[in-house]
Structure to design on (294 residues):
């Protein structure tokens, strides 16, 4: 019988999960407790803590997949535990792993097939580049910022006092950008609402921008490693040119050089989002691979 027993993730798991996430120090957005928790209903996320591993399972049936577990322990032991579980459940083992773990696992096992998942690659930037926007390649971004600075604007940390105003902007954004049949964006709206509902409990850090006294942009996230901060959500009204450039810049400046890298997550295969994220010239992509075991 498998030693792994999965159950739905709960807020009370945060402390234990973060200790194990810290041991791995992976930079991917999925290696943050907040990400795991707020997407729990959309992706049917379940977790298991066993032998200093933090196992995360998504979806069910033939779609079941696992993140390579955070924590400490031998890679072979982690794979053995997952193979036992999948064997008992009649599932084919499918793991999502970063490039380094993928190379290690494919060197250890001859019966594994690796497949790059480009839509899941995270865009990771040098914090100093996003903060200072120096050089010819950032000329357009500086112009956008200068246009935005012409407004009567201010910025502030997201706190319990202004959370409701940020949530109101999120609702306005949804009315302008989300069609009734767009399941992906509708799911994202649920996730943002969950994030605000549990914002303080999840230990998020974020900034909001006001124009003429009203919140018109916000961004927030959490660290994934000692040197990397993940921006989970960025939202802005479409009323002010340069507002997205402004909230991006404001958040990075508020982090005050604490992190070398800023992970702005993946593009989910959306062409417009891919173009926008590439326009900030990532330092590297945090590559993700599916590992299929026979």
């Amino acid at each position: 019988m498998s030693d792994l027993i999965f159950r739905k993730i709960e807020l009370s798991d945060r402390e234990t999960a973060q200790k194990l996430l810290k041991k791995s120090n992976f930079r991917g957005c999925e290696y943050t407790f907040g990400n795991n928790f707020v997407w729990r209903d959309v992706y049917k996320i379940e977790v298991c803590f066993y032998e200093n591993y933090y196992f995360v399972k998504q979806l069910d049936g033939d779609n079941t997949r696992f993140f390579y577990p955070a924590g400490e322990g031998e890679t072979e032991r982690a794979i053995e535990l997952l193979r036992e579980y999948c064997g008992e459940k009649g599932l084919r083992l499918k793991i999502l792993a970063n490039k380094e773990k993928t190379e290690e696992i494919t060197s250890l096992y001859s019966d594994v097939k690796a497949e790059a998942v480009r839509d899941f690659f995270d865009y990771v930037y040098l914090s100093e580049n996003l903060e200072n926007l120096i050089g010819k390649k950032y000329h357009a971004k500086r112009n956008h910022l200068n246009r935005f600075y012409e407004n009567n604007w201010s910025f502030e940390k997201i706190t319990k006092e202004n959370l409701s105003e940020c949530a109101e902007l999120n609702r306005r954004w949804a009315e302008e950008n989300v069609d009734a049949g767009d399941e992906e964006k509708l799911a994202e709206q649920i996730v943002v609402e969950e994030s605000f509902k549990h914002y303080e409990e999840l230990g998020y850090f974020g900034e909001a921008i006001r124009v003429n006294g009203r919140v018109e942009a916000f961004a927030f996230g959490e660290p994934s490693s000692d040197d990397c901060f993940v921006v989970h959500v960025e939202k802005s009204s479409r009323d002010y040119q340069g507002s997205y450039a402004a909230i991006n810049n404001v958040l990075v400046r508020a982090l005050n050089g604490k992190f070398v890298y800023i992970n702005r997550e993946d593009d989910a295969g959306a062409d417009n989002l891919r173009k926008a994220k590439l326009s900030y010239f990532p330092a590297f992509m945090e590559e993700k691979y599916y590992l299929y075991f026979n």
Notes: The chain has a mean pLDDT of 97. The longest helix spans residues 75-89. The domain at 7-120 is CATH 3.40.630.30 (Aminopeptidase). The chain is about 35% helix and 25% strand.
